[in-house]
Amino acid sequence: NIKYLLIIDDIDKKIFDVVYKDDEEIEKQVDEQLEYIKNQYSDNWEETLESAGYSDEDELKDEIRLSYQRTKAVDDYIKDNIKDDEINKYYKDEVVGDISAKHILIKVKSDTDTEGLTDEEAKKKAEDLIKQLNDGADFSDLAKENSDDTGSAAKGGDLGYFNKGDMVEEFENAAYSLKVDEYTKEPVKTTYGYHIILKTGEKDKAKLKDIKDEIIEKLVSKKKEEDSTINVTALDEIRKNYKLKFKDSKLKKLYKEYIDNALKQAEESN
């Protein structure tokens, strides 16, 4: 029911225009999004607005603003409901200190990249290099002579410091499992080919108080990824918190149907 959706939009505008009044971050996003859309249809902007059902540019801008306000409202609602136990658990289980490493990459050729060796050849070459390391060869020298990662090869395979999420998962897991000055005794395969990894340094992880806001942001993203219905349920709770009530039984029923349908669509889209 389009008319009813417009009522919901109007309710949310009344709430969020107060909550996020003069929010500079939202206004910046709105202006950027509007400018992007205008650039796509610059030759016939007025006709585009009319054909899309907007009376003028301000009406479209209001719709874009409401979308960003709703997104921020959901994020803020999730943040307000994150418990200290969740933050502490994430810090304990997921937060690690930066590590540094060197690597030697032996590329495996593919359909899109014909350079490199076959999988079998690349693995064998990597295994041969590990044998040379076992016999006392210098890692940096081998990297300069053999690594297909030309950027790091010139620096003896040095990748500098990195943290979780900076590298592909297989590489990251292998690097973090090593002790400092230890190298992988088996080649590590990733989408790039086979790696030999030498862990060269490790830092203490940051203090919780210094990264608490960052952890909260990651928990918000995690919750939104894991629960496809959270946008619907959060907005419903926000409206209730702002005393949304329906005296008319028909409107109350229509709103419940609207929420039920939105939840169903969210679950199906997951």
Question: What can you see in these coordinates?
Answer:
By secondary structure, the chain is α+β, with helices and mostly antiparallel strands. The chain is built from 12 helices and 4 strands, in the order αααααβαααβαββααα. It has a 4-stranded antiparallel sheet with strand order 2-1-4-3, with helices on both faces. The radius of gyration is 27 Å and the shape is elongated.
Fold blueprint:
Blueprint: H1 2-19, H2 24-40, H3 45-51, H4 57-80, H5 84-94, E1 99-107, H6 119-134, H7 139-146, H8 150-153, E2 158-162, H9 169-177, E3 188-190, E4 193-202, H10 208-226, H11 230-241, H12 249-269
Helix pairs in contact: 1-4, 2-4, 4-11, 5-10
Helix content: 55-70%
Please state how the strands of the largest beta sheet are arranged side by side: 2-1-4-3
Query: What is the global morphology?
Result: elongated
Number of beta-strand segments? 4
Radius of gyration over alpha carbons? 27 Å
- Which structural class fits the helix and strand makeup? alpha+beta
Q: How far is it from the N-terminal to the C-terminal residue, by CA?
A: 24 Å
Strand content: 5-15%
Q: Major beta sheet, specifics?
A: 4 strands, antiparallel
Order of helices and strands: HHHHHEHHHEHEEHHH
**Uncertain residue ranges:** none
Mean pLDDT: 94
Give the count of helical stretches. Answer: 12
Compose a concise summary of this entry.
61% of the residues lie in helices and 10% in strands. With 270 residues, it is of the alpha+beta class.
Keywords:
alpha+beta, four-stranded antiparallel β-sheet, elongated
